[in-house]
Amino acid sequence: MIQILGKTNIDFLGKKYYTLGLSFLIFLLGIFAIFQINAGNANLGVDFAGGLSLQVRFSQPVSLTEVREVLDKSGVKDADIQELPTEKKILIKLKKQQEGAQDIIEKSLKENLAAKEPIIESITEIGPKIGERTKRDAILAILAATVGILIYIAVRFRFHFSIGATVATFHDVMAVLAIFYLLDKEINLIFISALLTIAGYSLTDTVVVFDRIRENIGKVAKGAMTLEALMNKSINEVLSRTIVTSLTTLMAAFALFFFGGEVLHDFAFAMILGIVIGTYSSIFIASPVVLLLGKNSLLKK
Amino acid sequence: MRKGIYFRIGLIISTVILAVIFFLPNTPLFNYMPDWWKKNLPNKGVVLGLDLRGGSHLIFEVDLKRARQITIERIGLHLQSLLEKKNFKPSVKVEGERIFIQPVSDEVKRLVRENYPDLNLTEQGQNIVGELPESAFKRVETTSVDQAIEVIRNRIDQLGVAEPVIHKQGENEIVVQLPGVKDPKKALEIIGKTAQLEFKLLDEETTLWRELPSLIKQGEEEAFLNQWKAKLSENNEIVFQKIINKDTGVIYKRPYIVKKEVLLTGDLLAEAHVSIDQRFNEPYVSLRFNDAGAKIFEEITAKYVKRRLAIILDGNLYSAPVIQERIEGGNAQISGSFTLEEAKDLAIVLRAGALPAPVKLIQNVTVGPTLGKDSIEAGKMAVIIASILVVLFMIVYYRLSGLIADFALILNILLLIGALAALNATLTLPGIAGIALAVGMAVDSNILMFERIREEIRLGKTPKAAIESGYKKAFWTIFDSHVTTLITAAVLFHFGSGPIKGFAVTLSLGVAINLFTALIGTKTVFDFIYIGKERKSLSI
Hints:
Radius of gyration of chain B: 35 Å
Number of strands of chain A: 4
Mean pLDDT of chain A: 87
Largest sheet of chain A: 4 strands, antiparallel
Number of helices of chain A: 11
Shape of chain B: elongated
Number of domains of chain A: 2
Largest sheet of chain B: 7 strands, mixed
Number of helices of chain B: 15
Distance between the termini of chain A: 39 Å
Shape of chain A: elongated
Oligomer: heterodimer
Radius of gyration of chain A: 24 Å
Strand content of chain B: 15-25%
CATH superfamily of the largest domain in chain A: Multidrug efflux transporter AcrB transmembrane domain
Strand order of the largest sheet of chain A: 2-3-1-4
């Protein structure tokens, strides 16, 4: 039998104040990121911000300065030019819809960089009204998912667990959001779906831990063990499952990251972050929150 | 027990066969199938989303405010000519959404009521004021959007796009999906053009002509209109003709003064096609009106011989020929300085009819065919590599049991693809990502069980007992964890658009199928190997 971990006995909850403190900081950073996004100080995708985004493929490597010079000359204002993870491809973004900008960009690229054969591979043009609606839908989606999860956990477990699971899940979403903001990665609709997937994944992890805690609460005689010790025992028992599952899911996420193409690159990156953070939170955040909330009430029953 | 096993084995085999049958149309093998198969068995398979097959996803917004305005203006113009015919010397003006009619008399009121029973009439000083009730406007709005959809559908048919999807969204939006469209820019131009063709009379009597400059620069139209508005007679308006300097390519605008009254519109067209002028080798669009249109055209040309008739499309004057004589048969032509391509496009939009109100493009997501192909390749690659990594890992870590989990994993992917095909679901790039992630997460159920079984073995149980209690204890954990994923997937499905919906579909199907493969698939194999005869050890 190959084992990554044998029978462990780690005191996870002993470090709860450190981990909760750290996560609180991350959480604050996430809140800060949300305010920055709201104020328009983040790399928002055109699907939210509205505007024009063109993905251009060249036959040879091209530098951003080269493209910027061409665009400046053509009179297109405030173009944001980004490199894509796939070689020879760039992304040109315009915040505001400018009349005929797409034609001007296409024409000037073809004229000035003819040797590198620019081809416009994709066009995304979003009016401000659609952008606003997409933003509203994304916020509603996150709220609806949170409420749905809260209700389900509350029905299946006890209320304290529901709070613990929601806090842990929210923490993961905030952390990934904060990291994306700090790295200036594009926040778009695909990223929001990554966030919701992460929420689902992290919750799965948390549910597995809670399930074992619930099972053990039923087994241990009243007063034989403190809740904290019981939680530690439960987490240790499911630890190898938690890590093995995270590993296999990480394998899939890494496959997407390296081979999935530029559209899925950031999605995969968010998933990798989410899997790591979600694993952490199911161990270090979810249970401590339940413990702090329900120290006395849980073991009595 | 054994009976149960055979039933489950049968169930697994039949689901796999079903999945293969449903997915077959997506493989080249389908071409070799006999005709009865192609006809009677599933033949659609998985549909590729626009992000994978390339194409345009457009959303247009119908300008409802303008639709209301146009309705009121039409009523105003009609009333003016109606009352003129009855010799009332009327003055009908439209301000905002109200019509002011002079003179005030019961006879005028009666005529207006007869023609427009919807119009609420009140007397205000020197005017009869007519207003449409909101319910009538609402009707106008709905029919405008429905008509616009019809017109757009006609135009797209002329473009020759295979399997376009056109539908209404919300109150005033039209969604247009053009899979595999070759020239998205041209499609946009043709769909978005209002194509309101109007024939108006040039006002040659006004002396304002002499003061107007003959050419202005493109972009200065608005300032120009503001400058001259005050001097214009209230029955007149200024329209522009586009003039291109053939040497420099610079575009100029030539202003014309025309009467506001619309003599004839493109609604009554029967046919429009491109012809080439033999003398100048220039393309023009020749028009033929239907019977009603031809009759009006004949009346106009008889009444206004030697006057100039302005042919105006979407507010731009194309030509203003002198009427030489009365024209019977309803044939006319639009010449102007356009290229053959432009003339062809113009003929298309004229044939398909005018939009009842202008539309505005509010979303355009276009993916080129090469990017779509690259995405499919990259997505396939990612799924294959993810599968290989996970399969190898499971064998190395759980040995024979891992192999059983891998069997479940492959079953999972097969059934997932089959289910997508059975639902004719649209596979998008995020959907492929969903499959890759499902591969990673699919083994989770088995990992949960295996870890549980390992625990039971550590407690000293026999393989048979360990498997039984491992499955039993892991069941609710697996169930709970799957339901939570389903909740987020359902939310994504409800709020997401296009590609995201595709992701939600694969994710939720993947999770649901996983319940089946993990609980029934692997359990059956275990039962088959371990339950029949009691073994001493378990390879896990």
